[in-house]
Amino acid sequence: MADEKKSKQRDGSMVFESMYPLLALMLILVACVDLCDAATVVDVYRLVQYDISGVPFGSRFSSLNHHAASLSFQRGADLSRSVLILPLRELDLGFLQDYISQKQSLGGLLILLPQTLRPGNIGGGSVLSETQGFRKLLAQLEKLLVHGNIPFPVYFAFENEETDAMLADVKKNDALGQQATATTGGYKLVISVSEPRKIASPTITNIQGWLPGSRAEGDSNQLPTIAIVASYDTFGAAPALSVGSDSNGSGVVALLEVARLFSTLYSNPKTRGRYNLLFALTSGGPYNYEGTQKWLKSLDQRMRESIDYAICLNSVGSWDNELLVHVSKPPDNAYIKQIFEGFSNVAEDLGFQVALKHKKINISNSRVAWEHEQFSRLRVTAATLSELPTPPELLESAGSLSDTR
C-alpha cells in the first residue's frame, strides 16, 4: 500500500479513551502458507460499548489474534479461536441471533459492509434499490448488537479487493473442512489495542446564535423570541461511521440554512422582524436531550421567559412528502395553533403535507422522547418538526450505520 495510506492507518490506531467515540483501528490480515508471507492493513471500526444504569451493552472486547473463518465452516466446528467474517449481503440474522443468545464461543466477528453504504457514497437506479435493502438489514443487525451484551470482539469494515480475495480463500478452505490453524496456514486477523477507558463525565457542548429583532418606534417592551433548535449528536453501532445524515444531520443543515437566510434579512434594519431569533445546536440528543436541558437552564431567566415558542428540527430529510408537528401542549393552545397554521400554509404552497400529533408528557418518566419536551418541562411552548410518526426508543433513530444518505 502507499505510504500515505499506511500513515493514515497508523493515525487511526489510537488507544480508546471513551466508551462512545471509538475510532477506526487497524486490522492486519496476515496470509500464512507455512510461514507468513504477506500482510495487508484494512480500516476497521469497533462495536460501541456503553452502560445504562450499570448494565453493560455492546462489546467489552477489543483485541483480536485469531484465524479467519466463514459461514462455510463445518457445523459443530470450534470457533472459539476463529474470527467469523460475515458479509452483510450474506447475513443470516437468525443464525447470528441464535449464536449470541446461546452464548456460543466465538473468537471474534468481522462484518463486511458494501461500499454503497460508505458515508457520502451516492448511487442511483438498481444500486439505490439494492442499498435500501442493505439499510434495512443493517438496521436490524445494529439493533441486535447495540441492545445486547456481546461476549466477543465485533468489528465493521468495508468490502474491497483485499477482503474479497481473503474471504474467497477462507470459504474455499472451510468448505473442504480445512479449518485454518497455526500449522495448516490460512489468514490471521490481528488487532492489538489497550482496553478502553470509561469517561466519568462526558463533555456536553452547545452552540447558540442570536439575531436581535427591531422594536417599533416608541416601543420600550422587550421583544418576544422564537427559538430554532436542532440536536447534532449521533449514536450508532460504530461511532466513527455514525454520521447521522438524516438523524439529525438534516435538522442541523435546515437550522444553518434558516440562520443564513434570516441573517441576511436582519442585517438590514428595514427588513428586521419584530421577533428576536435564537438558534441553538445542542448536544446529547440520543441521551434524553441532556444538552438541551443544560442549555435551557443556563439561559438567563428573562431570556427564557421571552421565548414565545421553540421549533425543534429532527429528521426532516424525508423521501416522502409529509412531515409531522409533534407537540406536548394541547392543540388548541394559541402558539401551537400559530405554529401549525404557519407550517400548513407553507406546506400547501410547496405541495407537501403537514400533520399535528399531540402526546402528553409523563413527568414521572425520565425518558425524553422529543427535544421539545425539555422546553415543555420548563413551561416553554415548543414543537418538534420531524418525518418520524412516533417517538423513537432510547438510542434509536439517532444516527445508525444505515443513515448515510
Give a quick set of tags describing it:
about 400 residues, alpha/beta, Glucose Oxidase, domain 1, Aminopeptidase, 2 domains, 7-stranded mixed beta barrel, 7-stranded mixed β-sheet, about 25% strand, disordered N terminus
Describe it for me?
With 405 residues, the protein is an alpha/beta fold. Helix content is 27%, strand content 26%. The chain is built from nine helices and 17 strands. It has helices spanning 3-12, 93-101, 126-146, 161-175, 249-266, 290-298, 301-305, 334-350, 372-376, and strands at 25-33, 35-46, 49-52, 55-59, 64-69, 82-87, 108-113, 149-150, 154-158, 186-191, 207-211, 225-231, 276-282, 307-314, 322-327, 353-358, 382-386. The strands form three sheets. A seven-stranded mixed beta barrel has the order 1-2-9-7-6-5-10. Strands 11-13-12-14-17-15-16 form a seven-stranded mixed β-sheet, sandwiched between helices. It has a three-stranded mixed β-sheet with strand order 3-4-8, with no helix packed on it. Strand 12, helix 5 (249-266) and strand 13 (276-282) form a beta-alpha-beta unit. Mean pLDDT is 85; it is low at 1-23.
